[in-house]
């Protein structure tokens, strides 16, 4: 792997591709296919919402700007739709079978973004003001609720036994997502969080929905529980790898790429993996970091902090080994995810594409 | 019907019982049965939530006080659970068949209360501080989300075709509930709302979930769509009657009984039925009311208003006929609801009990 020199914007964990035959152009094509097949269905679903919720949702998805003018916004990386379509193919169904699942997962993901941004007081997402900043807290709550309901509606109106099973898995994932957000909030008020607690929280907050994305297409395609569970395991560990990378980008990410503030997670006092691993490591840097963060915890907010004060904390996290530990954890989870694919009898092309998506998740810069 | 003298706390619309053989003791027993059978299942469901969401939910339901001590709070009238159980019996199933439906509907209802109280800034519910006042906005959002997810989870884990159909109906009702809240919020910012718009909003906000409560037990009991639709129609119009009475209580209700402030809906500038009917009526009182409310709309809030200022507005609403119109509307919707019962072939006892519940809804004082 490449050296971690602590410079923001640098690629942090580099992973040897699981399948050298699959290059980044293929991943781009997979992401694009997911976007192309799911976006029209997503837009039609959002069009069902009553005014002004349809407008607010369209703003959130980047289809219009704050003044209602058409926009070509950054709708996110679209990893989940790509996974849902490949998931259908893994069960021998055409990719289109996964589309309602892809859209339902995207709706739940965006429901959680709308509510989390409000709860966390985040003012920016994808380089734009968040919904609660532009349209007010009530609309952020309401449109989030509506997207959640729409996700279930879209699946259940398929009226099949498979759709019922898919909805049940999505509901379980959504409950875990909410548990994870509850843990995330409560950890922000605690002085110490263990590495295990942090991993459990991230498994709930990120792993569960990626697990659902990776299995929902197969479930809709009639896969048995064993196949669906193996694909869930792939998605779950991919989610943990994804989140470990997110935690690295939350401290050392390039604001131009991530669309977030510098030292974003440190500003919010997030007990993310690099922080908890550094605090658990022991030694002088770990202890100094612990003292600083304990003192910070007594301030009502960190708005008055200079860039240097955050840089000091980031350097201590790195010195205590939190950055390296998190990079290793991303690679470890990536390996478990890819191994899980061996438990499913699927076409070699689909397996290679799922492995390529896993590689992409750990080398991304945003 | 009794005279409407404009004194708060008086019973407003009196309706001749549809079945004189069913008295209020029977209704109390029906409500009690709904509570007794559904509460243990509801509590077990809430116990699944991660800390601190289980505590926050227990506070919301009145099982503990703000300090976590056991409480015997007022959990609401429990009309919905009573309906869900009778609904199962209307389809020839035992009342117990309706329990998961009763609990799912209660979970959705309370999800909407948690979010609506926050969006509307309501500080009191059922004589206690609302969740966002005690535990903060983030917990109100999060626990609301969790209750919504739990409702679907509870139904879908039954794993039957009937449960899938029930979940689909519940999801549709929830979407309407959210549409109704969106309309309610947007109407507060508009100077004029038509009576038709107000009825549509109330149909979404109150009718849809009562429709679901009145049909979900039957759906779980294997009823065909025709039976379920007729029971939905009963519940929908019962919901409109319920809401018309709520609108009367929101202006002229006794705060001791309702647990809300005096002139509650006027303080919040709600465009409720008595208000929109009075504004649509024409004549000197209607015009004077229109002038006053247009001037009020320019104030940032009405906190500085005296009791007399609200009393003046309430008197104008009554003089313009808004109170009488709303009482008549409650009776009209009650009649349509009871008529819908004739479209279902059900035991005479169950029909009489559903009719008695309808009577109760329109004569209640809280």
From TrEMBL, chains A, B:
Segments carrying the region annotation (Disordered) are 1-20
Q: Cross-referenced Gene3D superfamilies, in alphabetical order? A: Farnesyl Diphosphate Synthase (1.10.600.10)
Q: Which domain of life is it from?
A: Bacteria
One Pfam family it belongs to: polyprenyl_synt
Keyword match Nucleotidyltransferase:
no
Under PROSITE patterns, the record lists:
POLYPRENYL_SYNTHASE_1
InterPro entries, alphabetized: Isoprenoid_synthase_dom_sf, Polyprenyl_synt, Polyprenyl_synt_CS
Keyword Transferase assigned to the entry: answer is yes
Give the UniProt keywords, A-Z: Magnesium, Metal-binding, Transferase
Q: Which family does it belong to?
A: Belongs to the FPP/GGPP synthase family.
Name used for this protein in its record: Polyprenyl synthetase family protein
Q: From which organism does this entry originate?
A: Streptomyces coeruleoprunus
């Amino acid at each position: 792997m490449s050296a971690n020199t602590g410079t923001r914007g640098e690629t942090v964990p580099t992973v040897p591709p699981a399948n050298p035959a699959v290059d980044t152009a293929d991943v781009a094509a997979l992401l694009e296919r997911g976007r192309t097949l799911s976006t029209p269905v997503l837009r039609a679903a959002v069009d069902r919402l009553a005014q002004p919720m349809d407008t607010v949702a369209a703003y959130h998805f980047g289809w219009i700007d704050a003044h209602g003018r058409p926009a070509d916004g950054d709708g996110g990386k679209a990893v989940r739709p790509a996974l849902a379509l490949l998931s259908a193919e893994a069960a021998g169904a055409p990719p289109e079978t996964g589309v309602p699942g892809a859209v339902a997962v995207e709706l739940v993901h965006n429901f959680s973004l709308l509510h989390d941004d409000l709860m966390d007081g985040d003012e920016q997402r994808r380089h734009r003001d968040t919904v609660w900043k532009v349209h007010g807290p009530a609309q952020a709550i309401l449109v989030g609720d509506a997207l959640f309901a729409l996700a279930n509606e879209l699946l259940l109106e398929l009226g099949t036994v498979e759709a019922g099973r898919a909805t049940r898995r999505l509901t379980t994932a959504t409950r875990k997502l909410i548990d994870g957000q509850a843990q995330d909030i409560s950890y922000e008020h605690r002085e110490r969080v263990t590495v295990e607690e942090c991993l459990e929280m991230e498994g709930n907050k990120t792993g569960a929905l990626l697990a659902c994305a990776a299995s929902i297409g197969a479930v809709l395609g009639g896969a048995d529980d064993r196949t669906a569970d193996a694909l869930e395991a792939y998605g779950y560990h991919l989610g943990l790898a994804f989140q470990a990378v997110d935690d690295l980008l939350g401290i050392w990410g390039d604001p131009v790429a991530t669309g977030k503030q510098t030292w974003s997670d440190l500003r919010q006092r997030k007990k993310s993996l690099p922080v908890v691993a550094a605090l658990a490591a022991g030694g002088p840097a770990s202890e100094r970091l612990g003292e600083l963060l304990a003192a910070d915890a007594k301030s009502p907010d960190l708005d008055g902090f200079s860039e240097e004060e955050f840089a000091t904390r980031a350097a201590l996290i790195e010195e205590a080994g939190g950055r390296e530990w998190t990079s290793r954890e991303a690679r470890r989870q990536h390996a478990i995810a890819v191994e899980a694919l061996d438990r499913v009898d699927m076409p070699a092309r689909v397996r290679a594409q799922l492995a390529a998506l896993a590689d992409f998740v750990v080398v991304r810069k945003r």
